[in-house]
Amino acid sequence: MTASANFLDSEIFRWVILPLLIFIARMSDVTLGTLRNVFISKGMRNVVPILGFFEVSIWLISMRQIMQHLENPLCFIAFAGGFAMGTYVGLFVEKRLAIGMQVLRIIINQDAQPLIDMLQRANFGVTIMDGHGAKGPVKIIFTIIKRRDLEYVRRLIHDTNPNAFYSIEDVKVASQGVFPNAASSGTLNYIRNIFPDLKEK
Description:
Elements: H1 3-8, H2 11-41, H3 48-68, H4 73-97, E1 101-108, H5 113-121, E2 127-133, E3 136-146, H6 150-160, E4 165-171, H7 187-194
């Protein structure tokens, strides 16, 4: 029997290395699956088949190992743990990627002009409507932004109208639009250059 075969039959491999590999494999395929579902919802169909191929390939590898070691309960625990961790990692990665666009509906019952001016100055496209709320006349501001710009727009709202009501929804498809030119410095630095007194959160 070779050294390789001895290692594969060893207790360390069966009870430590194998469950760890199954955990990593399951975490990887669930992460890809989570991202695949997110990309489907965003309408990014070109990348979905590639993610699906690697997702199923990794899943088959991990399932094959479990079926060969049904007597090892740690393999089942690692499989379930990898699923849970993969869901978390997938959502974390998706949040960091910040892919897609969102629509903000901002309702202000005070002077909305400072916020409108700041949004327009930062080159965010805005649509403004008059409305009537429970406490009287309001201004309704619509703007479609890239997801990575959301935190910066929220800071603008907080600085100008901290009591403003706003709601956020994902946008699957949008045609045209006006967005900041972040250039090489990134959107945050771009907005900081325009508004040096913008508060940090």
